[in-house]
Amino acid sequence: MKYCIGVDIGGTTVKMGLFEEDGKILDKWEIVTDTSEEGKAVLPNIASSIAAKISEHGLDKRDVLGIGAGVPAPVNSEGIVNGSANLGWKYKEVKKELEELTGLSAYIGNDANVAALGEMWKGGGEGEKNMIMVTLGTGVGGGVIIDGKMLVGANGAGGEIGHICVNYSEKDQCGCGNRGCLEQYASATGIVRLAKQKLGQEMRSTVLNKEDVTAKDVFDAVKAGDEVAQEIAVEFGRYLGYGLANLAAVVDPAVFVIGGGVSKAGEVLLPYIEKPFMERAFFANKNVRFVLAQLGNDAGICGAAKMVLDAE
Amino acid sequence: MKYCIGVDIGGTTVKMGLFEEDGKILDKWEIVTDTSEEGKAVLPNIASSIAAKISEHGLDKRDVLGIGAGVPAPVNSEGIVNGSANLGWKYKEVKKELEELTGLSAYIGNDANVAALGEMWKGGGEGEKNMIMVTLGTGVGGGVIIDGKMLVGANGAGGEIGHICVNYSEKDQCGCGNRGCLEQYASATGIVRLAKQKLGQEMRSTVLNKEDVTAKDVFDAVKAGDEVAQEIAVEFGRYLGYGLANLAAVVDPAVFVIGGGVSKAGEVLLPYIEKPFMERAFFANKNVRFVLAQLGNDAGICGAAKMVLDAE
To answer: Which of A129, A144, A237, A277 has the maximal Cβ count within 10 Å?
Structure first.
């Protein structure tokens, strides 16, 4: 039996998993991310944690095929990062350093792309090879899988779907400096923005409170039949569905996997996205399913392990 | 020396080329496309023309690595077409039929995607592996190359970039039934539409004639310094540049290759596209070049030949 390691490097914790080559997770653990001094301890800490875990399981390093790692930054095809705000890194040859520290082969990807690969392997996209994962969290992230492989892009910045423009009339600015980015409507923050705009001019009664509304409040109210909340969800879904219709014309996916904190609202979310998508999608791209992500926080370590297996 | 055949199947003619494996074109020829009776003679005519050409050059069929063919329709990964209006085809197993007819391996792709592969190999995208080709003709077509390979998509309908929405306020309908498609502004037909709208309410003098203006007229007038024409070009470029900025966020290309009839206007076109692109593109995707297509009508046969070489 051969093994591989999946690593999901975040700004607060590093999640790791020990996998059998058939995909079974033998062990999962995490360590704190030490971002001090430009994050110089991040990779050494990962390397020693992996070495200890290999030994704890009585494994021989020669039975470990390699390490995959997702990083919160664009990563080029040589496994090089040109700065990661979350980790404190400047230019870093992540693949090379991790290989030198561990004596194992390493494969590095952007965390959102890697999570998408994980969802294709063992999650919402299982069985498909062309997939777009949309992560609705504080921002909107994404990962695109083409013919079973992550779309990396020339600058390691493929799949940045939160920053496609879905409203050319928008007055407010996105964090990226543009106006009308998908993230301004479909992230948790964006939903709150839409809700506050709506509640500010709303005369009907609603359970939502303009002052401290959250994205979760909105979808809880949707489930409870609150009409105002449902109209906010329609607006959210229209921007997201229209945006995804544009992505579909380029990528022609078999499935959209919807993940991130907002997706915890559950299946109720999907028709709000699918209906406007179908209104706008090019006819040849309508043969596509909308599903929820299934792996939660494990998507990153799963996708990272899959990178190792795909390289074999 | 080994050889391969590139075929570009169009609704009027079939273009073919005999290539050495290093990419040199030994011979180019074309035959008329017989679309009668649901296009049943198209593939047999191609097969006999290739057989004659192989014999004419004194080659042994065993020295021919295979045939690549671009088809005006979505093509799935098994080389199957589910109907092509231009050829009269219904469901057709193109790869299988062509292999049976010729005794050679066949590789089939959508014509726009195949032309993009050709431009990457020997044209405007030479040296790059991540590229978007935009074909500005009667409509707007496209092909996306990711890591050196064509983006085919789950339904064979990847790269349909003419039908991304770039104007959610558009009142006029696109041929596809939607409103605001890129094709409504950036195709030759779309440019005429923009020009007629502009000329209908224009008081300044211009060399353009509202009744019979063409896309070529517009760019000829742009070159001559006509202010009204330049404003039409700005509007064309804004829709196209904004649309390409959205594509870049997904694909992160190193280069955009602009082809098709409209691109015959030449280098004058590029700044009109690049400026609005840079205004709107996500910062991580701005490291991209805009170039003109170089292969003209040969892009299709070149890309088709490259499919054969890539499969080896």
So the answer is: A144
CA angle at A67 for the pair A61 and A69, rounded to the nearest 5°: 155
What is the arithmetic mean of pLDDT over A42-54?
97
Look at the pTM and tell me if it is higher than 0.90: yes
Instruction: Render pLDDT for B282-310 as a digit per residue (tens, 0 to 9).
Output: 988 999 999 999 999 999 999 999 999 99
Q: Which residues of B touch A160 (CB under 8 A)?
A: 249-250, 252, 282, 284-285
- Give the orientation angle of helix B227-251 with respect to helix A227-251, to 10 degrees: 90
The minimal CB distance from A249 to the residues B77, B160, B285 is found for B160
Round to whole Å and give the CA distance between A216 and A191. Answer: 9
Rounded to whole angstroms, how far apart are CA atoms B180 and B210? Answer: 23
Mean pLDDT of B96-101: 98
Residue with the two structure tokens 């057989």: B51
- Record: contact B176-A247, CB cut-off 8 A: no
DSSP state at residue A213: -
| Token pair of A26 as six digits | 């033998």
What local confidence, expressed as pLDDT, does residue B245 receive?
Answer: 97
Contacts of B155 in chain A (CB under 8 A): 252, 254, 284-285, 287
Contact B167 A168 (CB under 8 A): yes
